[in-house]
Design brief:
single chain, binds N-carbamoyl-L-aspartate, about 375 residues, 5-stranded parallel beta sheet, globular, about 30% helix, 11 strands, alpha/beta
Amino acid sequence: MSFRHLTQFDDLSMEDWDALYQQASDMIDHPEAYTDVCHGKISCNLFYEPSTRTNFSFQTAMMRLGGSVFGFADPNSSSVAKGESLKDTVKMVSGYADVVVIRSPKEGAAKAASLYSDVPVINAGDGGHMHPTQTLTDLTTIMRLRGSLDNLCVGLCGDLKNGRTVHSLITALARFQNIKFYLISPRELAIPHYMIDYMNAHEIRHVEVTNLDAVMPQLDVLYMTRIQKERFTDMAAYERNRGVYILTAKKLEKAKEHLLIMHPLPRVNEIAVEVDDDPRAVYFQQARYGMFIRMSLLKTLVAQGRKTPEPLPVGTLPVCHNSRCITQTELYLPPLTELVNGVECCAYCGHEIYPMEQIADEDV
Ligand code: NCD
């Protein structure tokens, strides 16, 4: 394996993905062979943001491997409520655990945690940025049910601005052959510029549309997402957009016979309950596959052992101007940037580093 932490899908090579998938597939077919492979290993789950599926599936994944789990699902029940920094929390728990799983409303939080952790860190969702283990779940689902990740026409529908699962999935599918995306969203919830730049740089075909019905007949995968209420600063904007796409049995009449209807869940109202009984609706199966690919990931990472990270310079100012970036609140973080296709970007949240005068308020 070429990776120590999983903060974004791009941390994985294609060989890493293949190995994780093959192992997960074997776990699905022969779960009894893995019940003890993480005996004595401990995972720490730091959930700074609400979660049901991701937290439960990480917990059950570790339990099914014979390991144990501790952590919090509500930061107010920990020293975080007393003002403890992310660095101190992570440094401390990485002394207790063999792997740290972190979910945070702050973009780049997992990357920041990985700089200070003595054990591997897994990003379980960082704000509106990335969600690589949901992506592993999504790829596993398509592979198991379709047999290939090449030659797909994928409709991504809903809140593409704030939906981190969509951003992660695009970066992953960009690695495969002959992928075309229909980006279906209201204009004010369109995919962020940095994702368009990413698709252009990787020569990924993509079309932005507002109408789901018009593209339905062409889709091999329809990936529905929730309007991300908690990421809105303007509730009127949320009200304008909630319920804008509702998938019904009637709308599916025009869809392909072998369409895969996926959703990271939780669903609010964007898929009518009547659709659940359509054989093309695979979202609950998708959630179950997520547990197996997380088992595969945990087994791989806990085997890596402890390693003290290199000392880093101490920062004083935020690296970037994204108001949701972890560097806005954890001011000691080193000011790391990286060049993405010649553009200087924040190494934590991926946003372009704009000169001060170009900064516009991007919040909805
Ligand atoms: C997603 C998330 O948290 O980003 N859910 C999940 O992890 N399965 C999607 C969402 O919250 O809408």
